[in-house]
Fold:
Amino acid sequence: MTFRRFAFNNVTRNKRLYAAYFLSSMFTVMVFFTFSIFAFHPVLTADDMNGNVQNGMNISAGIIYVFSFFFVLYSMSSFLQSRKKEFGLLMMQGMTMRQIRSMVFLENMLIGFFATVGGILFGLVSAKGILLLAENILVIDNKLNFYLPMEAILLTFVSFIVLFFFISIFVSYILRSRKLIDLIKGNKKSKGEPKANIFLTVLALLLLAVGYAAALLAEGIQVMVVMLPVIVVVIIGTYLLFTQLSVFIIRRLKRNETFFWKNTNLLLFSDLSFRMKDNARTFFLVAVVSTVAFCAIGTLFGLQSYLTSSAKITNPNTFTYSATEGDVEQDIATINETLQEENMKTNTAQTNLQYYEIAQDNVLIVRESVYNQFAELIDEDTIDILDGQLAVVEFEGAPFGQTEELMKQSIELDSGTVLKPDEVFYSRALPAVDSYYVVSDNDYANLPAAQSEMDYYAWQATSGENAVLKVSEKLSQELTPYRFVSGEYQIYQINKSYGPILFVGLFIGIVFFVSAGSFLYFRLYTDLDEDKQKFHSIAKMGLSEKELKKVLSRQTAILFFAPIAVAVIHGAVALTALANLFSYNLLTESVVVLGVFFVIQIVYFIIVRFFYTKQIRAAIQ
Structure:
């Protein structure tokens, strides 16, 4: 048997341990290859917008490539840790440390080669479906047809072969020689039960409490100010949570004899206590990586929702036009001609909005008949304002109105009458995002000269709504920018420009989350041989199959959901802080993002638990 054949057999005979490493690496290659397909797609290199998409894809591919290096490095360290005994046996048979390093190098290159080829093949198979998904997310007018991406194939293959080559050299170089007795004993050598430092335990609680409080209590721009300190404090607190606080809690539970001696708790917590020191670092890594995934996708999803929602709220009319100067009549004629050409029928309203200096600010004052005309246009209730009455209108859905300030002011008419506000209405009838005043028609005629004015027109479609985007795109090119506004067209433009960012963020977040799950898988299966021996011995003492399933399920659940639960809490706090920054409720978006990831983790847990339990049961029978 040649040395290369020996290395090949080692890989094929350790399918269980190498399966997760191979599949995770292949998934990483596939994601990188997918981004490369987009980057080199002919449609996405055709214009300026798609040039931005291409840049985003290239940056994302770079991030994934860098992350892949650390992911593969972590995976290999897990394999080496679990193969101490194997290396010891090989040294007993006469193999030198140099030969072991060569074997590890060949094994890793073999897996890397097939993972790269497999990732490219699966990427080609799934490319069409991903391209169809991208058409909707990226809001691209042209179809992203499938093509044979030779440049993407070459870039992916070369990039990952180089990555696996340097990882293999690095891992082989750092593989140090140890005493034979340490290698043979492997994980049997007791590290001693970890003990928690009381000061660090209290510090963990304090840091997390301070970080959460600062993030939740900050409002507006304060969120940006406290962001970096909160991130640092919470990361340190998270590390101490798993290395100190979790150990402290386990030791306290063990001291409670009623709880500790109940059913299989003794078996579960005794084992967990001894392994907590090793698991704590994995828990911390998974919690941080998962939090990054939650926050990245939650922030992007929430920001898109905020921008589109704002466009919907502030633009209740199909079209609006406003101007303070210029050839207004010509612009209005152009708009009406375009609507007629596209067979759109609309109801219209128009007025001259006048602004007055009140409390050193320009405040809109409108008469009752004008307000009711625009309110009827969007099916809002009309109001009845009596002579001598002054009402404040706050733009419904916008948190920036100065209603409280206006309620303290008064208006003096030319007749000498002083009007004081006594009522507040909430409406979206007029385009003043700030609050404004409404007076009766008679009182409006007695107002002093206005400081400034603006012509304002609104159209509400009654038929032909499917032509809104076509009309908007045509008029936005013919008219002066920012005068003609369409809420639906604004949302289209937001989704078109924001789509690449959301698409990129989704993929990066998914890569991070899948990697976090792989870290847990490696941690669990690193101790599989030890668990087989332990449960085989305990089964001889009378451990039933039902009790075995219960212990394994609880042990696996703690491993999988302890860091994810912490990450979900971190993510919920972060998204709440984001909501405070924009004064916008992100509860729905937060629940959707965190809920989807939690469901994925449950599915992952069920699959891993099934195969893990199957391995243990086979060992004790």
